[in-house]
Write a structure and sequence with these properties.
With about 170 residues, the chain is of the alpha+beta class. The protein is built from three helices and twelve strands. The chain has one domain: Electron Transport, Fmn-binding Protein, Chain A (Pnp Oxidase, Chain A, Roll), CATH 2.30.110.10. The longest helix is centred in the N-terminal third of the chain and has 13 residues. The protein is globular, with a radius of gyration of 16 Å. β4 and β5 form a beta hairpin. It comes from Brevibacterium salitolerans. It holds the Pfam family Flavin_Reduct.
């Protein structure tokens, strides 16, 4: 194997994953200063017993710190009808949790997206710090299913819809 600089390896790694589509979710919680949230394409199911997901956050993000400190969080699985919302929650300083975005609150204040394809409600059980990221493992204690809508993925720095005609078989 040839020697590769860390910078080159990071660049190649980023480019490889740029072309690998990821499903979109908005991770939300209530922090000390109110509701926080961010768009994530790193959400994955881990286990159905116990019901567990994992996702990664940037350690330096204020929203990430609040999510990690919250008692509960929501993983809002979104569809193509939420592309603007996904962009807003991926953009620093963009409007969040506005009335037109259709957020509800649980009794404890945890934000949940009323028209999400599904909302997974749970709590952080474990974290692993790796470089600039924190891998979060969360146990899901409630699932709210909505209308699935047209699926949405993030690929090549763009959101893409996955309609029923996108099936390959």
């Amino acid at each position: 194997m040839q020697d590769v600089t860390e910078e080159k390896l990071s660049e190649d790694f980023r480019e490889a994953f740029r072309h690998h589509p990821g499903g979109i979710a908005i991770i939300a919680a209530t922090g000390a200063e109110g509701p926080v949230g961010m768009t994530a394409s790193s959400v994955a199911s881990v286990s159905v017993t116990p019901t567990t997901v994992l996702f990664s956050l940037m350690r330096t993000s204020r929203s990430a710190v609040a999510v990690l400190e919250a008692d509960r969080l929501s993983v809002n699985l979104v569809h193509a009808g939420h592309v603007r919302l996904a962009r807003d929650f991926a953009t620093r300083g963009a409007p969040r949790f506005t009335p037109e975005q259709n957020w509800d609150r649980l009794e404890d204040g945890t934000p949940v997206l009323a028209d999400a394809a599904a909302v997974l409600i749970g709590h952080v059980t474990r974290t692993v710090e790796l470089g600039e990221a924190v891998v979060v493992i969360a146990e899901i204690t409630e699932v709210r299913r909505g209308e699935p809508g047209t699926g949405m993925v993030y690929r090549d720095r763009t959101f893409h819809g996955l309609g029923t005609d996108s099936a390959l078989e």
